[in-house]
Amino acid sequence: MKKEGRLIFLILFCQGLLLSGCRNSSEKKEGDTESILENPPYSAITDSIRKFPDDAALYFRRAELLSKNNIHEIAIGDYKKSWELDPEETTGLRFASDLSIAGRPQDAMKFLQNAVQHFPSSKEFKRLLGDAFMQDGKAKEALDLYQSLLKKDSADFESWYEVGLLYEQLRDTASAIGALKKAYGIQPVDTYALELAHMYAECKNAEAIKICDAIIRRDSSREWVDPFFIKGIYYSNKQQFSMAIVQFDSCVQRDWKFTDAYIEKGIALFKQRNFDRALHTFQMAATVSNTSPDAYYWIGRCYEATSKKDEAILNYERALALDRNFLEAIEAIKRLKG
Q1: I need a surface site. Which of 56, 73, 242, 314 has the fewest CB within 10 A?
Q2: Nearest to residue 85, comparing CAs of 62, 110, 113?
């Protein structure tokens, strides 16, 4: 879903955790650090650093420029030096973000734990640390951290929202809804409303429709796609597949690249045993995103349902090539190959 009102540090940090190990190719060629820093666009700042080696702001400026150009490993060194010279909160947040983007989540976590001690009143450091705990599978540590924030400020809507996401990750739907309702009640923004609607849709609660319809009415620029998608999920879960398909069609009318909408529409058609239309829809999903393992898996399901064994195996194998841990594809291949 679209997210709004989040600090850029937090966005970059989460992306970095998800992309750990998938470093930019330019970063792999950063071997000659000195050569990079002695040439434009960094050379002017490098000259200034020689003249004023204890100026934290200069290291920070160079780090920002390096980071902007995806040279995160070198940027980390400058952020670290800037932090050591003048440990400001903004510097620390950027430092943690680049550590995660560079594929060093453990270093990021270690730094954030120290930063929390250095800035005990900083909510942002604690939220970043909570996200790091969540991504590392340390749910209890994350929950304890957010609860400590809420104990100090029960109106901290961002922490309520993070708690809701954490419970959602833990598949505790009731607790997730409770936390998200708290967040939305304090700060009624569409981001929180949609996350809450999504949870209602998953448990077949018609409140999902009310929330989504309210957002659609307010959406004068017709930008939102998520409300239609969530309504589609609700109707699919209620096995009202024709109504679900209408919502998924509305999604792709607004955003023809919305792969999940094609896939969910295809699943609805598949469950109606309309295999030809389902196959066409999944093929559209694969066209929009040829790296979607789900699209190829469901193409395989359609071929298997129509007794086209070889085509089914081929597409299950395509799904597995994109996701080596795709258990359903593995089982389907074993089933068809006997």
Answers
A1: 242
A2: 62
